[in-house]
Amino acid sequence: MARSILFLWMCLISVLISPVVRGDLEQQTENTLQLHEKNNDFAFRLYKSIMEQPESASKNVFFSPLSVSVALAAISLGAGGETHQQLFSGLGFNTSTFSSEEVHQAFLSLLQSLNQRTDVDLEVGTALYVQDIFKPHPEFLEKLKRFYLSDGFSVDFSKKAETAEQMNKYISDKTRGKISQFIQDLDPDTLMYLLSYIYFKGKWSFPFNPQLTRKKDFHVDNKTTVPVQMMYMEEMFKTCRDEVHSTSVLSLSYNDSFSMILALPENDLADLEKAVSPQLITKWLRWMKKRKYEIFVPKFSIKTSYSLKNILSGMGMKDMFTDKANFSGISSEKKLLVSEAVQQASLDVDETGATATAVTGMRFVPMMWMEVPVLIFNRPFMILIIDQKTKNVLFMGKIVDPSKEMN
Questions:
Q1: Partners of 216 in the β-ladder
Q2: Tens digit of pLDDT for each residue in 331-354?
Q3: In this structure, are residues 62 and 355 in contact, taking their beta carbons and an 8 Å threshold?
């Protein structure tokens, strides 16, 4: 059976748009706002599904939920019947509330908004590689380019080494060299290969002084301690204290447009992971106050890779991986299915910034102490990179052992 392959990865184009009347524009704005909510709901459901994998318990976790949702929404352009319904439901869209056109238009607005930012180095998009003898429906290709900013390439997958080199060069260019060998082995039966990428590089609003970085212990668990390079700064930071979950939350900003949220629980990180949600993050952001803190944050680089086939199937999007798949919107002649879904991610955090290719009863420490409080991230913590404008979660994960680069 002919197969299409979906690959997703993170490292973390000008489009023709028809004029719209004011009413249409207002509806698009409302749909885009709802898309942000659905994307964040999906992000936390995906995070918890990844955490249910046995191998995730003791490892660093880092991924881009936005890259995954963009890829799934993009392939839904060619899906029909139950396959389309599963994709839309899995992404959190109720078809009685959102039409397909409204969802895709909202994704376009989001991608355009992200790609137009000038205060950080950010690029989001997709690319489609098609077997040269395979002819997808022109309407599918046109919509993929219009809504998902897709680059298109005709290749010969039977020339495995040559095509892999071409694809890896594209990926390396888009991720500024952070992910350069994504394609390890190509299946010559491949008909289509969809890539979804996001690259983010931001500089801290207040950079750390490298001369103050020191080696300190990081407590992986009660029995394991590893040495890490710990960055230090005393400055005015946005922080809050979540007493319900015994968690200290710190926001490190990139030029006020994006921020990295670090959540440090006093107790087991797993308890916080069970409780965390978009609503909880919203409350953290809402109740943050600026005050002077001494902070210690580990300097680290991590790379992760996830096979998402079983994870997405477990989230209800299963038919696309089986012979029940309906991608009649891509081709009427070939029966297509998705044979695999993979994401690779990387995160570098240093003194200058980060490059990334996840309630009632909240109480705050009174701001009357003379002593400067200290936040030391020397035990497992959660991490999120958030767009302050749209509140979209671009990347999320947890740092269990910053001394380990690969997971």
A1: 228
A2: 888 788 888 888 888 888 888 876
A3: no
